Structure formats: C-alpha cells, structure tokens
Automatic annotation (TrEMBL):
Lineage: Bacteria, Bacillati, Actinomycetota, Actinomycetes, Pseudonocardiales
Species, as recorded: Saccharothrix algeriensis
Keywords: Membrane, Transmembrane, Transmembrane helix
Protein name: Transporter family-2 protein
Pfam families referenced in this protein's UniProt entry, alphabetically: DMT_YdcZ
Chain segments annotated as transmembrane: 38-64, 76-93, 99-121, 133-155, 161-178, 198-218, 230-249, 256-277, 283-303
InterPro entries: YdcZ
Amino acid sequence: MRLRVVGAGVSFAGGLFLAVQARINGGLGHVLRDGFLAALVSFGGGLALLLALVPTAAAGRAGLARLRSALRRGEIRWWHCTGGACGAFLVSAQGLTIASLGVAAFTVSVVGAQVISSLLVDRAGLGPARAQPFTWPRVTGAVAAVVAVGVAVSAEFGQPASLWPALLPAAAGAGLGWQQAANGLVREAARSTRVTTLVNFATGTAVLVAVAAVDVAVRGLPTAAPSSPWSYAGGALGVVAIATAVVAVRWSGVLLVGMGQVAGQLVGALAVDVVAPAGGGRLTAATVVGTVLTLLAVGVAALPDRRRSAAREPGAPAGGR
C-alpha cells in the first residue's frame, strides 16, 4: 500500500512537469510568434536528449532490435509508430493558444477531450488491452468532463473570438487517446518504454519539421528569440514527465499512475497561472471550478462498475465479454 501511494505521488510530480512544459512552450510560441516552430524546438530538444541516451545503452539497442523484428514480422504496423504526431499536435497547440487562453483552461480542455477519446479507444479495443465496455462510471465521467470544460471557458461564451482557442487543445486532447493506444502497442513490441518514447519523439519531430518548413516558407523566420535557456527546456520536461510514469507504474499500476499524472497537470496548471500567468490568460473562478469538476470527472470515469464486479463472483468464469 505504501508503494502505491509513493507511485501516485511520483506520477503526480510528472503531471506538474507537464503543466510547466505547457507554460514554457506557450511562452516560446508567443515570443517566436510561431507555435509550430516552438513545438519543433520542444520536440527536437527531447529527441536530441533521447538519442544521446537510448541508442548508446545496451538495453535501448536491444529494444530497437525487437521493434524492428516485430515490424518485419507484421506483428505491429508502421502506422502504430505514428503516435508522436498527436503529441506534436498537442505541443503545437501549446505554442498557438496558451498565450491567449492560459494554462489552466488549456489543460482542462485537453483533459476533458482526452477522457472522451480514451473512452472510445478503449471501447474499440485499439490498444494492447482488450476492448473495454461502456460502463456507467466511464460514461458518466466522460459527460461530466464535457460539462467541466464548458464551465471552465464559460466566461468566454459571449466572446467567440476568445473562445475558439479552447477548441484547438480539445482536438489535441482527443488525439491523445490514439497516441496512448499506438504507443502501448509499440511498447509491447519493443518491451522498452525508453524505445517507445524515442519513437514517439522521432515521429513527432519529423512531422513538425515538415510543418515548420512550410510555415517558414510562407511566414519567414521569426525576428526574435528568447535569450533565457529555460525557454528551451520544454522537450526535457516532457522526457522527465514520461520517466516518472515509467518509475511509478512498477508500484501503482497504469490506472493510478494516469490518475496521478492528470491530477498533477490540473493542479500544476492552476499554480502556473497564479505564479507566472500567460500574457493574455487570466485565472477566473469559472476556470478553478472547471478544473475541480474535470478532476472529479476523471475520478468517476476510473471507478469500477460495482454491478459488473458483483456479477463476477469467485469461481465464475472471467471471460464472456
């Protein structure tokens, strides 16, 4: 029990790193005036760090070899390795919208959409786990998450021009469901979280290189860049956040780690908006209430269905779904 609590605390810390990453990438995009270049800097920094760590280690090379073999045998398809494209979209959304939306509202929008996406992905059985049926806690949590997002951005309902940025992180959050499913299949094939992370960052960086090339061709290079080295730490923070989940999952399991990380993101986002608010963002009571409701909604979605549990008495067959 003690290790489970420690694991939840570690994953909570990982969520805090993700909230800080969002603020850094948002600030970088604001200074560069280009969210796509900011995303490329973040992903490229994370990829450089992983390239220095993974292929140089024997365990990393072994994981890469297992993944290559699985691809050749058809046990996993090439498009399962494209989960990083969804991550690239998320980081691009950070650079494009946080300066005007604020970290808290951004995070609530992402989490709300992510809950619904995960519900659908689980139902379709797209990940390594078997298909999960719709249960009342999952559906109730998803609906509550949508309501919570509406509450969080309700202050902007009368200003459509201010509301639309919330749609972009919501779309990015919806993509996270597929990213998690795809990365889960890659992790099973490589039997290495580090290799999965490297593949994720490599795919995302490749997508962002192509997008940024078109963006620069149309708009030109930015005329200013941040001088502080902290402005370029987003990629490293993303890698650290994933590493905390890798450590914690050994003690707490995937579900508790995921819940701890989401809680860390939400609390961290509120703290960032208080300590270092984005230029155009403001912390409102509606945002705080929406954040709390989203956290509660995620908790409800994670509850077991007691009726289904009661139906499976000791000695009853486990299959039959």
